[in-house]
Amino acid sequence: MSEPGCAIIDQYDGVYYGVLKISGKEISSTFLPFKDEEKALELYTHLVAHQDDRILCCHHLVRYQDEWKYMSPAFLLDAPLFWRPVDKFHFIINLDHILKRREIQLQRLEKCLRNWQKKYSCNWVLEVNCDPVFKSIYEHKNSSSPTSAYTSASYVSMVRYCSNVYHHYNDYATQKISIINIENELSRLLPELYLHLFEGLILYAKKTKSRERVFSKSIISEDI
Q1: Roughly what angle, to the nearest 10 degrees, separates helices 155-172 and 106-114?
Q2: N or C: which end of the chain has fewer CB within 10 A?
Q3: Where are the domains of the chain?
């Protein structure tokens, strides 16, 4: 088995874009800044040797152990590109609870998410208003609770909205569907949702040198 390697092609706002090369395959990848390439290659080699399917999730790996004091490998390796629909559901619900408990500073997270606007340019409000069920969920909150209405320019509001989609989709649908099918509908409208939020969280931890419990484990854990 050939040794894993990587090639950095471009960089934007402190994040490097390139290709992860493993066993003759090339995987488009995103790397945060690193100081010691050997540390990353050691981990890649270990995962390949143990035939761990999560090797493909290494595209978000912080590649120097000094940075691991802010985010655990468990958080970084469990990246959204390979989540199942039920994992995406747990991610949104968990993140919504984390934000409500103020375990993350909302304004700072909002700023980090805005840093990715060029990469993730989707206007979430316009997209959800194209679907009658999603539009009903959006309009109900804004009309019934004006003081806690969604802010169209806010990505933090988007998290709260997506959580409410899971809770209330079947209240407005003509036919009830499962959580997995609700997630499929959400991904259809907002295909970059999870990657955008995940990269925003990584940038938040990096910029704030965060040691919050949020980053100590996989964010899709059911007991977070």
Answers
A1: 90
A2: N
A3: 5-80, 83-215
Q: Write out the H or E segment, with its range, that includes residue 65.
A: none
Whole-prediction pTM: 0.71
Instruction: Using pLDDT thresholds of 50, 70 and 90, give the confidence band for residue 83.
Output: confident
Question: How many C-beta atoms lie closer than 10 Å to residue 101's C-beta?
Answer: 9
* CA atoms lying within 13 Å on the CB side of residue 145: 7
pLDDT tens per residue across span 138-170: 988 766 665 566 776 689 999 999 999 999 999
Specify burial of residue 4 (Cβ count, 10 A radius: 0-12, 13-18, 19+).
Answer: buried
Q: CA–CA separation, 19 vs 208, rounded Å?
A: 28
Name the packing angle between helices 179-189 and 85-100 (round to 10°).
80
DSSP string for residues in 167-217: HHHHHH-SS---HHHHHHHHHHH-TTHHHHHHHHHHHHHHHHT---GGGGS
Q: What is the dihedral of CA 176, 181, 186, 191, to 10 degrees?
A: -160
- Please state, in angstroms and rounded to a whole number, the distance separating the CA atoms of residues 162 and 94: 12
Phi, psi of 111 (to 5 degrees): -65, -40
> H-helix or E-strand containing 11?
strand 5-12
pLDDT band per the 50, 70, 90 thresholds, residue 137: very high
- C-alpha separations of 60 from 18, 40, 55, 72, 215 in Å: 11, 11, 11, 12, 14
CA dist 106 → 111, 123, 133 (Å): 9, 19, 28
